[in-house]
Write a structure and sequence with these properties.
2 strands, alpha+beta
Length: about 110
């Protein structure tokens, strides 16, 4: 069910995509529950999981492979906001729930070119 909020917003082209890959310094500062030789490329909190239920809703097949790229556009609702100021400066955290998602299989698009 689409939210009325989305219907009232002016239609705009998508904003510029920004890579969320961690820098080498960010990787070194990543908290790990146990020592690991390889640090993750992207922060853990940016991962999402799509099960058979979500794949069906998005009309996606489960035939993708590790390393494939999907074009993912979404709306997210803010579910929590936390702002703190401490000795090391200010810290902000915003939690989101993805409410509406559009996808395209980038691998198929590359094959069409």
């Amino acid at each position: 069910m689409a939210s009325p909020l989305y219907d009232s917003r002016p239609r705009r082209s998508w904003s510029k995509l920004v890579s969320m890959e961690q820098s080498e310094d960010e990787k070194m500062g990543t908290a790990m529950p146990m020592p690991m030789p390889d640090k993750p490329e992207y922060p853990y909190g940016l991962r999402i999981c799509l099960t058979n239920v979500e794949l069906k809703k998005l009309k996606l097949n489960d035939d993708c492979e590790v390393g494939d790229m999907l074009d993912l556009r979404c709306f997210a609702r803010v579910t929590s906001v936390s702002k703190n100021v401490g000795e090391e400066g200010s810290y902000s955290r915003i939690e989101l729930v993805l409410t509406d998602i559009a996808t395209e299989n980038e691998m198929l698009e590359k094959m069409d070119e």
